[in-house]
Design goal:
- The chain is mostly helical.
- The protein contains six helices and no strands.
- Helix 1 crosses helix 4 and helix 3 packs antiparallel against helix 4.
- The termini are far apart.
- 17% of the residues are buried.
Length: 124
């Protein structure tokens, strides 16, 4: 699975304007040329569409069509997240490494540790 994320990440990175990507012929280059606010706005839109697809899937009793729509919207969200990572000089491997680091940790323990770090950082 990480192979396809890395492959898509490499393609996205290669289409960045800084690497010669042409905004006239590449959606990724076009979006990156607009800057991080445009990329982040697109992620917000895709996240909203994913949420709505999940709600529709739940209401439809997870019909095959509803499942396909949810998968398609999630793919759009992941793709635009890869664009964001590339824009900030990061790779899918960076996220995968963080997920690997968290493997086996209790989600509640991880959340509590992050809250404690934030509290210490803010002097509390």
């Amino acid at each position: 699975m990480s192979d396809i994320l890395n492959q898509i990440g490499e393609v996205v990175e290669s289409r960045a304007p800084a690497k010669g990507g042409d905004p006239e012929t590449s959606y990724v280059a076009h979006l990156m040329t607009k800057g991080d606010d445009a990329i982040l706005k697109k992620i917000g839109e895709e996240a909203s569409e994913t949420i709505m697809a999940a709600k529709d899937a739940r209401a439809a009793g997870l019909s095959v069509d509803a499942q396909k729509k949810l998968v398609a919207e999630t793919a759009d969200l992941w793709f635009h997240s890869l664009v964001m990572l590339a824009h900030f000089g990061l790779k899918p491997a960076d996220v995968l490494a963080e997920l690997a680091r968290r493997e086996g940790l209790s989600g509640l323990d991880e959340f509590a540790a992050r809250r404690m770090q934030a509290s210490e950082k803010n002097g509390g």
